Amino acid sequence: MEQLRFRVFGPTEVRVDGVVVPLRAKRLRALLTALLVEANRVVAPDALIDTLWAGDPPAGPEQALHTAFSRLRGALGPAAELIRTVPGGYLIEVADDQFDLAEFRALVEQGKDIDDLRERVRVLTKALDLWRDVPLAGGSAAESIQGRPWLLLERLRTMEKLNEARLALGEHAAVVPELTVLVKEYPLGERIWIHLMLALYRSGRQAEALAAYRELAAVLAEELGVEPATEVRALHQSILRGEVPAGQVAPAQPADDGWRTHWQLPMDISDFVGREQVVDEITTRLVNDGAMPVAVVSGPPGVGKSALSVHIGHRLRAHFPDGHWHVRLAGASSSPREPLDVLAELLGLAGLEPQAIPEELDPRAALLRSTLADRRVLLVLDDARDARQVLPLLPGTAGNAVLITSRNELTALAVSVGARGTRLAMLDPAEATTLLSGMLGTERVTAEPAAVNDLAEICGRLPLALRIAAGLLKSHPDKSIAEYAEELRTGDRLEGLAIGDEPDTAVAAAFALSYDSLKPPVRRLFALLGVIPGGDFTAPAAAALLECPAREAGRLLDSLVSVNLVQRERGRYRMHDLIRLYAAGRAEVEPEAGPAWQRLIGWYLRTADAAVDFAHRAHVRLTERLFDENPFTDAAQAGSWLEAEELNLIAVVERAADQGPHESAWQLADVLRQYCARRRRIGPWRRFAEAGARAAAAAGDRGGLGAMHHSLGVLNFSTGYHEKAIAEYTAGSQCYAEVGFGMGEAALVCNTGMANLEMGRLGRAVDHLSRGIEIFRALGRTDRLGPGLHSLSDVYRNLGELDNAMRAANESWEVSPDPFQQQISLINRGATYRLLGDLDNAELDLTQAITMVERPVVAAYYEVALLYADRGRPAEALEQAAISLEISRRDGLEWHEAVSLNVLGVACTLAGRYDEAVENHAAALDIAVRLKHHSTEAEARLGLAAAALARNDLSAALDHGHHVLSQAVELNLRIIEARASRLLAEAHCRSNNAVEAELHNARAAEVAAATGYLRAVRLAR
Description:
This protein is mainly alpha-helical. Strands 6-8-9-10-7-11 form a 6-stranded parallel β-sheet, with helices on both faces. A 3-stranded antiparallel β-sheet has the order 1-2-3, with no helix packed on it. Strands 12-14-13 form a 3-stranded antiparallel β-sheet. It starts with a strand and ends in a 10-residue tail after the last helix.
């Protein structure tokens, strides 16, 4: 098994068996970095999109993210298996010994438990040695440390622990240089200054230790408007007196002035998750404001306000050395605490005797402000009712800070004291999953990702409800999450999930009251809506459930909308997630649910088939026409329906694959194949086909299995996985042959030939394509010859049989039934004209190919680019090649990306931009080698040879040229053989090797005579 190692200390890096996996694309490195810093935790798509595109995502960001993941997995090789798509986002699973950040944290934890100081120093030094230069230092902002200051903070805390241990060992002089650098890097880090002052003093440098204190005091006064902390001032006094004990590492406590330091915060939640941005914002606010900061956290009950305030408070202990005071104000209760009583409590905390505390409110408030002057206390006021309750409790001077939680927003405080408010929302799906992982354990949660997602939605992603659910699961370790989620879904446990503080807000009870009050027809509809697996639905879908007219279903839906059990949004309907799950529970006990599900999937089948009939009906399809009358008026309306229903169609196919009816599952996937192919819906396409294959296999349906192999084959071919495509095509053609579907068999035999062409196996390609075309002819279906003839033309062009290539292109033009197929005929014919030297006709065909359809295939652009290059028009060649590269990357077409890079390299060489040419050809070579696409690999090497020759690097030109020539001869790539021979002739000529030059010129002339190939002007440069 390969040894994997990931690094984020320094530029992000992956090694397999000690060899670095090249990740040249910045976006791929940034994507991997974002996953690694959250290793073994789910990362939400939105967070990844923000990271990759820095707030300026492309159109269709989810598809772009999916494409990025496809490219990343392809680049990582065996390491790609560690990246998983899970509910709520994406996850990379790595062990500590595979990842430097995880290893660092493990060593730091180990060091905490070591009593022997020298061993602790050794372990912590080993941890810090893992840092190489600056962590996460990459070429883009997404890879830089500035985006994740918490990681530098971990390093800093570890360095502090190491320095404390070294000081305790007496290594005072040795640590001074390192500490001097650290205080420049972290000028506000008072713990580092303490260490530096001690090290200087113990090294006999008392004056420098005192100077260090003065420098710190000046920095704090200028940056924050505060004095050094009490412990720093105490150490300063000890150094002035020359009375620092010999073994002291931390400063001694100052003399007792009557002040009592209290640390009253409740215990921090060990598995606190999420809210990173909110925590950072409030922390910065409480620490950095010149005036006394007041922060208010508001939100509904159970959203985690109190837990957040405690979590922030614990993070700020070092900034408030005079104490953390925590007071529950009971604002949400029927008896909120009076400010007068709270003030007495706070003054008592400060050390005042009861008899010294005034009786009236205003004098008490003034005394608190006086007592807290020149102190640094964090005051956490939990569950405040209103501004009136809070205002008397506020300190009056900088250095202190107040953090308030409330169900109300307390806007009056913003007016009176400049308080800054933050309203908490529910956790996002990834945070909810992480919370459950922290309470239940990663192993238990990752074993049931779908069930975890269900449970999070049942709880409405409310932290309190999630914790209640997880607590109940922890008390039943033998119960699966799915089983527990099912109990909640049916209502057995929903009453145990209290969303608020009051017992009468149990979810199940609230929903049951609404459900029981419905009239019978409306109640029946509500229950049947529970069988819909998607997120939203329409009145016609509800009508299918009820077997009634859409207008009647719409009237019943309006009744549900009026009682807030259903929401209406722009002509579609949806339920709140908790209500939808409650409806699913009702459906489980509804006798009509089974027939309603059958009616629903039948409606989806007929409607989807009608929708694809306008522009996306496959020419070869096992599933017969399923509708009688088309409900759509035109292609635009049908396309809008397919787009709006895409997620629901996925959910329907997947549920039918798992629960039946199996035939409907694979048929719906078959119906949608061409839509997915034409619209480049790669992710949905894979889910349709894989679920359909499961369904056909479960039913033992060989025809259905053939249809799904067909779909998966086209999918893999479209995304550049040609070996996988060949395997799927072969299996599918066998299934089709068994059930007597000759059209399907012929199509897949041709498709196998096309895939072999893309792999550079030209002999196999000709065999399969010819056999498939003959099957079509035997069936009398010449109208289906187009795709096979397209590929046959391409094969002949690679073989140098240009007359045959032209003949196949012309016949495909004559038999192609639609503009999409005809454009490919023109591309093939134009490319053949170009090789024959007829550039005028080539330009006519290629220009028409680009303009005759709304979305031309990517090959049209790079063939036009090659034509412009042959005509000596580099600027236009560069423009068209750039377009083809953009489309290839946008749509995740890796092989086309490699071709586009090669063409861009050709244009760059022609334009004299040789470094760019080499970079593009090298990138194309990487992709071609990984995809095992030999002809593209040869083109890349030939491009590198041409760039070398253009810059007169004859040694490199000869090396690359001979490699290409051998490869072309081996693969019978005659045109490439001619081009390589011509290039070698030129290189030998420049090297004054006339004999070799003449031999290669003769070889090029021989190929040209046999093929009709006329070399391009650009090769003569």
